[in-house]
């Protein structure tokens, strides 16, 4: 499978609890951190839920 790189661009502080848990589940710990995940429909759904806090990088 292919992979996708995701960058956390905004802090989850003060956001909806469900979105905080999604950010943690994606593996983020700091702003600016880039994580690499497999490109699956589940990961894409998680990205879509918190798209205002993350961006896909090349």
TrEMBL record:
Full protein name: Large ribosomal subunit protein uL30
Family (UniProt): Belongs to the universal ribosomal protein uL30 family.
Keywords annotated in UniProt: Ribonucleoprotein, Ribosomal protein
Cross-referenced NCBIfam families: rpmD_bact
HAMAP family: Ribosomal_uL30_B
Signal peptide segment: none
Subunit structure: Part of the 50S ribosomal subunit.
One Gene Ontology biological process: translation
Coiled coil: none
Classification via PANTHER family: LARGE RIBOSOMAL SUBUNIT PROTEIN UL30M (PTHR15892:SF2), MITOCHONDRIAL RIBOSOMAL PROTEIN L30 (PTHR15892)
Domain of life of the source: Bacteria
GO molecular function, a single term: structural constituent of ribosome
Gene behind the chain: rpmD
